[in-house]
Amino acid sequence: MDIKHMRYFVAIVKYGSMTGASNHLYISQPTISKAIQDIETELGMSLFDRTKKKIALTDAGSVFFDQCEEILRLHSELPNDLKNMIGMRQGHIKIGLPPIMDAGKLMAIIKDFHDLYPKITFQLIESGSRTIESRLIQNEIDIGITVLPTESDRFDNFNFISESLCLVVHENHQLAPSPSVNLEELKYESFIMFNEDFYLNEIITSACKNAGFIPAIISKTSQWNFIEEMIERELGVCIMPESVAKLLKSSSVTVKIEEPVLKWRLGVIWNKDKYINFITEEWLKFFQQHYS
Predict the structure, then answer these.
(1) Which residues form the HTH lysR-type domain (predicted)?
(2) What is the average per-residue pLDDT within 187-206?
């Protein structure tokens, strides 16, 4: 088999049919069908369960699909890796990051790295932690920034930011003058929360349950600026990282949470057992050295 055969096979799986793969690759369906037959003959096993109406992989097919994706990725990155190894230093890095963070520290590191390697470009993709981890596993991004610890042992990581979570209320709120609050004092408040894609949601909900109540949620969102607007209109209260709270409008007041003290850690994560291209590896080294 050759690299084209692997590309045909992966396209069938991704697009759900030989017809879909044919349309995407601009290759005739008989050509793709013959390639799959050749692969199965060479391997001596079936890759598709043909008793199902829809495309379904056999166990062997699932293993072969994972290997094909990795081989195709390595094949596509080989030219850039070779160029980078001889000093040309060019490429593209895709970073997944949560929208609920003060991006200033990250931008400073990106700027310094770009000064050293001006031919390297960046794509920043905002998502919740769960989506970031999923995209990393699927090789849709190179690096993720997410809440630690992760729920998967498939990633390596290092700590990026550690900070406390605080209460944010409107300046007219009865708790605004308080230097600090206990979490149980928020039992009857309306909460503005992040959506379920964010581990921060779990941290807050779990802490509230431990304090003896389930938070009454008036709204959920993935954007901290939407939360800012809702607090501005006195629709509820929110718990968020201190660094993000400092970016909010002057009508918002930050109150320390003393009991229990809520913390969160953001970390840089990447796939543990998969090949990392030369540029991404250089970026990780630079990031860790720069930030430490």
Answers:
(1) 1-58
(2) 91
